[in-house]
Amino acid sequence: MSESPYPSYKILLVDDEPAWLKSLSLTLRSCAGLTNIVTCQESREVMGILDRGGIGLVLLDLTMPHLSGEELLRQIGERHPDITTIVVSGLNQLETAVRCMRLGAYDYFIKTDEEDRIVGGVLRAVRMVEMQREYQEMSSRLVSGELRHPEAFSAIVTGDRGMLAVFSYIEAVATSPQPLLITGESGVGKELIAHAAHTLSGCRGKLVAVNVAGLDDTIFADTLFGHVRGAYTGAETVRRGMVEEAADGTLFLDEIGDLSIPSQVKLLRLLQEGEYFPLGTDQPKRIKARVIVATHRNLAAKEAAGEFRRDLYYRLRTHKVHVPPLRERKGDIPLLLDHFLAEAARTLGKKKPTPPKGLAQFLATYGFPGNVRELKAMVYDAVSIHRDGLLSMDSFIAAVEQGRTEAGPAAVAPSRQNPFAGFIELPTFSEAAGFLVMEAMDRASGNQTLAARLLGISQPALNKRLKIMRS
Description:
Rossmann fold, Helicase, Ruva Protein, domain 3, 4 domains, 5-stranded parallel beta sheet, 20 helices
């Protein structure tokens, strides 16, 4: 029985000299036990091999016909930034080595170096890639567990298992210096998650939040990096950028999916080089802040469409967490309703009103496209017009009906537009009405008032239908 190849991913050796390829391959097999090796003599085929997947480490020669090693290094950095590259070249030039390292090479060796030095460097890279993959696997498999610091999440009202899993993940990565990407629809509480991560990070500095949506390239650079006096017309004083304001703390960039390509390049340099230039100066400054970004956009789709740089996308998603929408955690609605009723009453200087029985059940029938933020707005509106006695459901009903009207038919999935489209034998009108009533009663947990509102009929009409069904 043959042994499994090692490592679990493939190592690609690229050189136009077949003798060197054979020699290096044998050396890595015999001296390092690396058996999962593939070779390539044609530089023009390299990117195609990488596009097919499975490669974790590339050993690359520089002097080759057609595509040079430096050009390949640049392309790998742009299209496959998750792949580690080592240069093994016949050129013993310091300038070339420095240039390659700036292009993203993990290490640089000369072909005349001692065999042990090259093998040792390759093994270090192999272990580094293995650790990265193991950590990513651990992160993706992380499930809800007992929180060590639940107080960090006190601002987030939830009992949902999916949200608790998010909290566990944030605890696990909070002290990492690498970027954290928070995704989720608008209104789910991404900024609260960022605050929790900052609290758990132990950073001495503050959290500085910047919404980058709508910022053009110049304003983005000025906001983040600041400027010196005379940098442009009207710049009469020095301005500290948000990066400097967040020193020893956390820089939170919201709506990162709306960033322009030129601004993406600047952000990539900040993360990759760890330095930035205030406008009007060529003296770099070092970033001393942890970076957290958030977006409601699908970055993977934007990257595939060429609207978001792949190298930046991979750099940002070192740690990634998705906050589920409210419609996927409807068990939180009663908790949030009670929390916002108390908060609104306190803010508006009123006594906390008693909600009508069935209000939470009614709200659970709504999809909440605006998520927690929309629910909060509903509650504040209802409490603001409340006088005394039982809280009225009227404002909630009006808000839900308006939300459904604004969502329009486009918000309904094609499969939901005609629920009978796939039926081989259609039910009768009476049978279809019965099924609809049963579903409404089930969603309203037996509350006839709520079920009637869901169906758009009066309660007496529903009661009459129920009597017919029972007879």
